[in-house]
Amino acid sequence: MFENVPDKEEMILQYLDGELPQEEMKMVEEKIASDASWKKIAESLSLAKEGVRLFGTVQEVNTVHQQLVNEGSLPKMSKAKVVSFQKFIRRAAAIAACILLIAGSIVGYQFYQLSPEKVYNESFVSYQPTITRGGDQASISSIKQAYTTGEFEKVVQQSTQQIVISTEDSFLVALSFLQTNNAASSIKWLTSLASYSNKFTPDAQYYISLSYIKAHNYDKAITQVKKVMEDDQNPYRQQFSSKTITQLKMLKWK
Fold first, then answer.
1. Which pLDDT value is given to residue 51?
2. Looking at the whole model, is its pTM more than 0.70?
């Protein structure tokens, strides 16, 4: 049926657009699968369609077509319909290829620039402990005092000198490990806090995510980020997005 079709490009285009009757759709599909020339045309048309999608609108491609007509390099539809359509497709395919190359270059550049530090910094928010105004300074633990003034190394040191540490101080110790780039210790302390219900459980879950990112453990980071995003009660859920997940998956490829 299709051996001598003069406008098979148009038929394939209708096939790609789903505009053919079901019986003809199946026959064209079989022809593309078995005939190299049909397959080549189908691939070129698919590339052109992708170019149109990335380029913006079909009208922009029509503008290119009209420019070719005005230049005299592409005649108006006449008896040479097949030839002119093929020229248009070749030009459209070239445009599509350029656009795909540009898009690929942009993605490649973004991939090259991507780093765990970048993802970490984009998602990070500093924790500020609550200090009651006018409260008794003597009642504030040495760990909390050191953390409040940004002395994270001192916080870590203080934690080794105390036998019993409160839940809040434990959380601040975990964050201090994170701030001093000791992700392994941060994960250990935060995991312990997140294992039972307490005031700092949502905070711990969020900072565990960041600790895994800093530790370059992207599989666990993805799992933890999703957990935070899906928790409507977690105040940090807006710090992450689908972009974060995508970036972490891309980091796995490096």
1. 55
2. no
Structure-token pair, residue 96: 């599509």
What is the per-residue pLDDT across 104-130, written as a single tens digit (0 to 9) for each?
Answer: 555 555 666 889 999 999 999 999 988
Quick check: 11 and 28 in contact, CB under 8 A?
Answer: yes
Cα(165)–Cα(34) distance, integer angstroms: 73
CA distance 181 to 124: 14
Q: Superfamily for 116-127+138-253?
A: Tetratricopeptide repeat domain (1.25.40.10)
Instruction: Spell out the domain ranges in the chain.
Output: 8-113, 116-127+138-253
- Please give the pLDDT value at position 117: 95
56 residue type, one letter: G
What is the CB neighbour count within 10 angstroms for residue 106? 10
Type of residue at 50: E
Cα 200 to chain centroid, rounded:
29
